[in-house]
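Weekly puzzle thread! Below is a chain. First person to post its structure in token form gets bragging rights.
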Amino acid sequence: MRICLLSADPGHPLLAGVTGLLTPEHQVETLDPGAEGPGPDLSSLADVYLLKARTPRALALAALLEEHGAPVLNSAAATARCQDRVEMAAVARAAGLPFAGTRFVATLGELAAAGVPAGPLVIKSRFSRRQDLVARADSAVRLRELAADWAEEPVVVQEFTVNSGWDHKLWVVDGQLFAALRRSELAPEGRGPTLPLPVGELPASWTAAALRVGEVFGLEVYGVDLLDAGGGAPLIVDINAFPGIRGQAGAPEALAALALRTAVSGRTGSAAERKVPQVSEK
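Winning reply:
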């Protein structure tokens, strides 16, 4: 089988692990979606493409490959749904998932101009990307500080949920769950190390919510960030397509098996599924 990594970083631990598992018997190649030069040879497609990139160029390339019949994990459309946090929240809440209440504000400058917030807020860039904005603001002063650097940034706003300061990171590969604890990026202490979290110790409602995300969003490799909203109730605050899943025993094996099975089945999405939503370059 020919397996192609759509990534600028084939040395990423997860991808390197998958490559090491597959190369004894299969051909693994890399295609950097951001590289200059001619595009892929559409007359000689790989058996499956792993989309470990989320830029607009990567999504456009994945959609092109899908149009020519190539299976892509995750699909371009499913990946794009996780890039726009407005659509992410709307899709999740419409499906009854316990997703944080989210509202869209055209620019952070507009939010800052509204004055004193009614309570602590979590502010995020509307479009998820590297080094995007994720910050807490408890006052008008803090909003103005953020607006000084991000005035024109389209943002989403969530009410801050009092919690332990730890994010529960749940990852799913083809229905197999992995989990860890990580300090919230909003915590004063900073992120710190990622701590192991046995999946068996998670409440059933948490694992059910994480698995339901895959069904709702059409994802097969994804991450779900959860908070304990009190009394063990899960609150989803973010969903990521094809996250790093670093240091999780069994994750490379699960991904390698999924890639091979998809290559054999040649599964592709419907025409509607392959339609990629607009994702901002910002």
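Puzzle host: Confirmed. Bonus trivia for everyone else. The chain has a mean pLDDT of 90.
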